[in-house]
Design a protein that fits this description.
six-stranded parallel beta sheet; alpha/beta; five-stranded parallel beta sheet; globular; 42% helix; 319 residues
């Protein structure tokens, strides 16, 4: 079986590490897979890639096109090739985006409408969590398959080694925020408000975005707590990666975070009240050791290899 991944290549690091990691895990499970990355932003930027992709498809044989994000699904379909298209809806392409107050932006409805129409023409729809399934009305096409985490890559590494590698002061308590602080959906202002109440001069917030994917494991092992304060998420990989590194977590109740964390000690769900966030950060810091999050990831079958096998079953259904 030969599969073409179609995804954006517009980030600072090219293809999304999430997409690349999934592709590599499929290769390790016997799938012959190529990547096609879209260069260009906005509707016009994506449309310009249709003839380029069509030329690529004319020169190569594929059994399936697996598009990641809604607009990539449209680019794949508009080549008008008779190749079945599967689309992975990742989050913002289904629920849109929000402002600093968590209110949905007007232009979000373009993404939402686009994804709804797209559902009519693709063979299968993969969403990352149950909350995203609510946005899919063609339930007979939908499969809920989160992104997996590479547990060989994301593992516990001695904290002192990571602090030295990243040149971080060993005397600080590290609060890690891996989202984009300028993205309103990530709600960084809530963390800033909460930290002002923690009242600990040794606390330091580290927000390394954008960060090379190869360095994330070192930040996760250098930190004392990962904090995620997002308004909206699908199935955030950073939570699974932090769990695989046994890092304590404080997160708002978004996407599938509560299900993934479960009853893991040292991990806490917070509200959008900055006082509650501050209290949960204190509790996570007071926990004072690594968690058993890795065991939970393996128990839930969220490692890359297990997820790859689920995706291959979808491919087999389509073929």
């Amino acid at each position: 079986m030969k599969v073409l991944f179609v995804s954006s290549g517009n980030s600072e690091f090219g293809i999304s590490p999430i997409v690349k990691n999934q592709g590599e895990s499929l290769k390790q499970n016997g799938i012959d897979l190529d990547y096609f990355t879209i260069k260009g932003k906005g509707i016009n930027g994506y449309l310009k890639n249709i003839p380029i992709l069509k030329k690529h498809l004319n020169a190569n044989h594929y059994d399936i096109i697996h598009a990641h994000y809604g607009f990539c699904g449209w680019v794949s379909l508009l080549t008008l090739k008779k190749i079945p298209v599967i689309v992975s809806l990742m989050g913002s392409d289904t629920y849109g985006n929000v402002d600093l107050y968590g209110k949905k932006k007007i232009n979000s409805y373009i993404n939402i409408l686009s994804s709804k129409i797209l559902q009519l023409f693709v063979k299968k729809i993969i969403v990352k969590s149950y909350n995203l399934e609510n946005y899919v009305y063609l339930k007979n096409k939908v499969k809920i398959i989160p992104n997996g985490v590479d547990i060989n890559k994301f593992r516990h590494i001695e904290k002192s080694i990571c602090l030295e590698k990243l040149n971080i002061d060993i005397n600080n308590k590290i609060i890690l925020f891996l989202g984009n602080p300028s993205d309103a959906r990530k709600n960084y202002k809530l963390l800033k408000e909460a930290i002002s109440l923690v009242n600990d001069v040794c606390i330091k917030i580290i927000k390394p975005y954008p960060v090379n994917n190869e360095e994330i494991v070192y930040f996760l092992n250098a930190a004392d707590v990962l904090v995620m304060t997002s308004f909206l998420e699908g199935s955030p990989n950073v939570i699974k990666e932090a769990m695989a590194c046994n890092l304590p977590i404080v997160s708002t109740d978004v996407g599938d975070v509560k299900e993934i964390i479960g009853d893991t000690e040292g991990c806490f769900i917070c509200s959008y009240d900055h006082k509650d966030v501050a209290d949960k950060i204190k509790m996570a810091l007071d926990y004072g050791k690594r968690t058993n999050g890795r065991e939970q990831i393996i128990k839930l079958g969220l490692d890359s290899d297990s997820i790859a096998k689920k995706i291959i079953k979808v491919y087999e259904e389509v073929v």
